[in-house]
Amino acid sequence: MAAPAVPAPSPTTTPPHPAPPHPTVLTRARRHLPRLGALAFLAAIGYLVIAPLVGLQRLAFEDDARGYSAAFDSPDMAETLRTTAGMALGSLVIALVLGTFLAWAATRLPPRLRLLRVLPVLPIVVPAVAAVTGWAFLFSPRPGYLNAALRNLPWWDHLDEGPVDIYTLPWIVLITGFGLTAFVYLFVSAGFGNINAELIEAAQVSGSSPAGVFFRVTLPLLRPVLVYGGFVALLLGLGQFTGPLLLGRNNGVNVLTTDMYVAVSQSPVDYGRAAAIGSPLLLFGIAVVLFQKVILGDHSRFVTHGGKAFRSGGRPSWVAVTGILLYGLVALALPLGALIVVSLSAFWSGRIQPSGFTLYNFRRVFQESGITDAIVNSLVTSVISVAIALPLGFIAASLLLKGRRFRIIRAAVDFIVAMPLGIPAVVFGAGFLLTYSREPFILYGTRTVIVLVYVTLMLPFATRMQLSGMVALGDTYLEASRTSGAGALRTNTEIVLPLLRPTLAGAGALMFVLLTHEFTASLLVRAPTTQVMGTILFDYWANGSYPLVAAIALVMTLVTSVGVFIAMSVAGSDIFEKL
């Protein structure tokens, strides 16, 4: 019987692959959302930082560059430029020498006196306007306390005033140098921490003396931080405003910053001339920012430490202890002591009379509505500015650290957030006064314009400190969060921000300190009805109410000291080094 026929298998038909779905509009929008957000952030901070500067320069070039003609055709401009350069260079030399010595001395302190390392930083805590007025109370030609004491010595007992005149350029340079020393100290101290101890030990084993080790090994290794710190100190010296305004203006000592202030405080306001006067400061500030980003961008080229960090090879030095204590006495204790004496006196004279001490001036500070309103304004605007600057700094730091997909946007953000640190505050103050006293934003006389200028000035600090915290945090936690399926928003809110809480608290407290004694930009954008502590102090100084000035200065110092204490409590004693 024949076997049944088996049907041939039918050919297997492979079903066609479905065509990939076309991305929807929503999908495409989500894909480009990060780039659009980065562009929007860049536009916002770009307008905040750059628009005031561009507006000033536009007015300077109007009418065939009338602003530049009015500024630089003046017969006094050459002398102003020489004075500005001389003050900046002189204060730079003082700051470099003192700052380097103090940084070395901090490495040679006995173990039980290591706390003295913070002493050279404390002058940053004292508001510049308070420190300058304190020096004036000490060395004014006739009623200055130290001048009166010096006239009792046989060398100067024939004088009716002096022998020191605090209102002259050499003494303004000296005071400015003392103020800049703390910044150089921070840079050089960080440089000491990066030096490989093995290099120092090798030089000592080879028979070099301590002086030889310092000048042949340590100092050359510190060259990068000295160069960079020197540029920063030079920039700060060129932009000095408080000392020249309070001490030099009435004695014919003019610098670019005070000339800018005169141009925008006179009637009618001459913004074009003010912009032209500030152009050298603007150009130099931009050059320093570019130098930092381009020339010093690769910081790893300057790392000199190996397995062992720097430690002093010499024995503890009492010369180091004496030097730090002497600097603290001169730069901190003397001006504060003068403020205390004047604030407790009924009037300022060359004699200290403890029997006449009174708290009347402090009662006036908290009873006069104009002063209390200024204190409240200062505190409120500082808190609001910190609350705005922190999230802006977080976004900027995130872009700088992880925005590799947006290279152009990242580079632009990096440059823009660094500009307020390189360009003097007086330039921004004039720019904000121009931008926000006319259409489309008329904000003159309100707290809002003060908040805007404060946020702009704090962008570098908010970004730098949070960037340091993110770098220290590393990528482990972020990768674990992403692996678990969390998006960027959830990762930042539930992982990054809680871990950065000490950094955020320290950054906020430090910015609050810097803002409560901000004076330069505030003086330009304030209105008679909207004052802060620094500007009300200046008004009373101009009116000759010196005991009240001293009381206000001490209140400012107390506020900033509390802020520093909080900052150091939540972020560590090295908070200033994180800048």
From TrEMBL:
<feature type="domain" description="ABC transmembrane type-1">
    <location>
        <begin position="375"/>
        <end position="567"/>
    </location>
</feature>
<keyword id="KW-1133">Transmembrane helix</keyword>
<feature type="transmembrane region" description="Helical">
    <location>
        <begin position="166"/>
        <end position="188"/>
    </location>
</feature>
<feature type="transmembrane region" description="Helical">
    <location>
        <begin position="36"/>
        <end position="56"/>
    </location>
</feature>
<feature type="transmembrane region" description="Helical">
    <location>
        <begin position="545"/>
        <end position="571"/>
    </location>
</feature>
<dbReference type="InterPro" id="IPR000515">
    <property type="entry name" value="MetI-like"/>
</dbReference>
<feature type="region of interest" description="Disordered">
    <location>
        <begin position="1"/>
        <end position="23"/>
    </location>
</feature>
<feature type="transmembrane region" description="Helical">
    <location>
        <begin position="317"/>
        <end position="348"/>
    </location>
</feature>
<feature type="transmembrane region" description="Helical">
    <location>
        <begin position="274"/>
        <end position="296"/>
    </location>
</feature>
<feature type="transmembrane region" description="Helical">
    <location>
        <begin position="441"/>
        <end position="462"/>
    </location>
</feature>
<feature type="transmembrane region" description="Helical">
    <location>
        <begin position="413"/>
        <end position="435"/>
    </location>
</feature>
<keyword id="KW-0812">Transmembrane</keyword>
<keyword id="KW-0997">Cell inner membrane</keyword>
<dbReference type="InterPro" id="IPR035906">
    <property type="entry name" value="MetI-like_sf"/>
</dbReference>
<feature type="domain" description="ABC transmembrane type-1">
    <location>
        <begin position="81"/>
        <end position="292"/>
    </location>
</feature>
<keyword id="KW-0813">Transport</keyword>
<keyword id="KW-0472">Membrane</keyword>
<feature type="transmembrane region" description="Helical">
    <location>
        <begin position="225"/>
        <end position="247"/>
    </location>
</feature>
<comment type="similarity">
    <text>Belongs to the binding-protein-dependent transport system permease family.</text>
</comment>
<dbReference type="Pfam" id="PF00528">
    <property type="entry name" value="BPD_transp_1"/>
</dbReference>
<feature type="transmembrane region" description="Helical">
    <location>
        <begin position="85"/>
        <end position="106"/>
    </location>
</feature>
<protein>
    <submittedName>
        <fullName>ABC transporter permease</fullName>
    </submittedName>
</protein>
<feature type="transmembrane region" description="Helical">
    <location>
        <begin position="379"/>
        <end position="401"/>
    </location>
</feature>
<keyword id="KW-1003">Cell membrane</keyword>
<feature type="transmembrane region" description="Helical">
    <location>
        <begin position="118"/>
        <end position="138"/>
    </location>
</feature>
